[in-house]
Amino acid sequence: MPPELRRAYLLVLGPPALIAPLPLFWTHGASPLGIALYELALVLLFLRARAGRPVRLSDAVLNAIGLSYFFWLAVETAMLRPGLLRSVSHLLLFTAIAKLASLKRPGEARTALLVIFLLVLGSVSSSTHVASLIYCAVMAVLAFRTLSRLAVLADFEDGPPIRVLTAVPTAGLSAAALVGGVLLGGPLFFLLPRLHGPYALSPIRIEDTPSTAVTTDRVDLDSFGSAKLSDRVILRLSVDPPVALPHLLRLREAVFTRYHNGVWTRNAHASRRDRGSDGVQVVGGDTLPLENSTARLSVDQNLYGSGFLFLPYRATYVRVERGRPVLLPDGAVQVTSARVTVRYEVAVGKKDPRGAGESAIDPTQVPAEVRDYAAKLTAGLTSPVEIADRIVRHFQKGFVYTLDPPRGSGDPLIGFLLRSKAGHCEYFASAAAMMLASRGIRARLVTGSYGGEIGAFSDAIVVRGANLHAWVEADLDGTGFQVIDPTPPSGIPPATARVSWWKRLVTVGRSIEVFYDRRILGFDAGDQVQLTEAFRDSFGNAARSIQFWKGTGEGAVFPGGAKAVVVVLGLGALALIAFQLIGRRPVIPPATRAYLALRRSLAQRLGSVPPAVPPAEVARLFRVSVPASADDARAVVEAYCESAFGGRATDEGVARELKERVKRIRKLA
């Protein structure tokens, strides 16, 4: 391969090769050092090519480097065990650089293009963030440009002028190709067979997973504060009718009754059943019962593995779109789903807001220090309501709310009460629940969320990590577990919040992220069935509408004359659109028109001329088959190459000359 042609191939393949592995840095699909070395080597190759001195490694050097790398690959796989994705990514990075640094034939450039495609495939398949759409768009533009310029290079035996490469493809052609790809690829994405679940779940128990503050069977005092610092979207809900009452925005997730050294756990021996004691019921089917309901909530919740749904107090019916929901005795609903996002509906009734079930903290398990603290604080009080009120007012006076409480040795709850007197909502709720239990009042810790942000362009409410909250449920008067929130007002999230325009833009980005997680990454066979049913219903409604209009009596809605006017106007609009499209047909340059006529004449003589036959070969075939027209054919091909690839306009004199040459060629052919 001549140096100038190798230079052209490097300039064409360099940009996509540079961008291809970038997502692997964020997805940990390749080591940062490996990506950095790859990018540095690629930049060196690209700069040498731009300077007119392209790198070409000899076969001996390439073989030595390849053997050394395979030795390193064996050591890396056996000792470091980076995983399949990293091993394959590192191999592809090395192969791409090796191929680009040793181009000898055009076929090796196509091999390098295949390696770059595999790098893109690895980057896309390991990326789950919505920002990967930007990467896909950039790579689509680079891919079309690269393929177009490689097609041009196939017609050259030496390096072409730079202006030839930079002129291909045009902006209009690129836009048309990308739009066409989206229009074709979009329906195929939704129509091709899908898996039942797009995610693989490992067979582990919830108790064995790392402790978090959301959707788990255990929470600890140290993790809840970090969870509240997160801006991650927990769920998105819509209320019908669109009201944001405080009791609807206090969402109950899980109940905890066992405490040990800063860690709360659920009652592992609680039996599962179909109906809670307060009337909450999990229903199936396609519709949610709404009798005696005051509101309906539609929720999209981010769920990981087996977790708990966020439900409002006064919930009567729960319908999960897909998944395996189980209603527990304490009113919590646990769901196992292969989906990242779970959609469910909740009907809210008119009953008093009470927590379900009978589980409560065992008073004998309360630490002695907490029991003594509660006895001293509430000495002389016997009424549960007065005891609870004393505890709440005590926390609002002498304690400080903070998401970063000081950490000491021993039980963090005892340290909170006796020493630091600073903590977040879980500290306040945990201490209050334990103190109430020590006084013989049935109480328990509840985690969930409170409040949310009103959507940027809708009435939907977004619940984030900052809205996570903990409170107490206690039976103060024998009517059931009612809500007690001992957290100081500064630590309770607002019921609803409207954000600034900048925050609204961020919210829009979050909405796109939720849509991407739910409708792109999480699109599975169940979604296909639902989409098919929606289309079927839409077509059914359209068919019924057509039947209705066909069955309408003459003159009932549209008299005959009006119908004729509508038909004439419709045909006129179609004709106008057709004339506009015909008028916008692209003007074919004279040289291109002459070259196309030349190819048609050759096809009539030889039978067929494949589209891949280059212009120089067309001229040669005319010289062989019709020697008398060799000069005319060569002149037409040269004019076409100057116009199409050199950017030179064809003047009127040359256009008339080309027309005469084509006439002579047709006579001779």
Please provide a written account of the structure.
The structure is a single chain. This protein is α+β, with helices and mostly antiparallel strands and 669 residues long. The protein has 4 domains: 3-191, no CATH class; 215-498, no CATH class; 552-583; 590-668, no CATH class. The chain has 22 helices and 21 strands. It has an 8-stranded mixed sheet with strand order 6-10-13-7-2-18-17-21. It has a 5-stranded antiparallel sheet with strand order 9-3-16-19-20. The chain has a 3-stranded antiparallel sheet with strand order 1-5-4. Strand 11 and strand 12 (333-336) form a beta hairpin. Residues 197-215, 271-277 and 552-560 have low confidence and may be disordered.
Topology summary:
Layout: H1 3-19, H2 23-26, H3 32-50, H4 59-80, H5 84-100, H6 106-125, H7 132-153, H8 162-166, H9 171-191, E1 218-220, H10 221-228, E2 233-240, H11 246-249, E3 250-256, E4 258-260, E5 263-265, E6 281-283, E7 295-302, E8 306-308, E9 311-312, E10 315-320, E11 324-327, E12 333-336, E13 341-348, H12 368-377, H13 384-398, E14 400-401, H14 412-420, E15 422-423, H15 425-438, E16 443-450, E17 452-454, E18 461-464, E19 468-474, E20 482-484, E21 496-497, H16 501-521, H17 525-551, H18 560-583, H19 590-606, H20 615-625, H21 630-644, H22 652-668
Parallel strand pairs: 6-10, 14-15, 17-21
Antiparallel strand pairs: 1-5, 2-7, 2-18, 3-9, 3-16, 4-5, 7-13, 8-12, 10-13, 11-12, 16-19, 17-18, 19-20
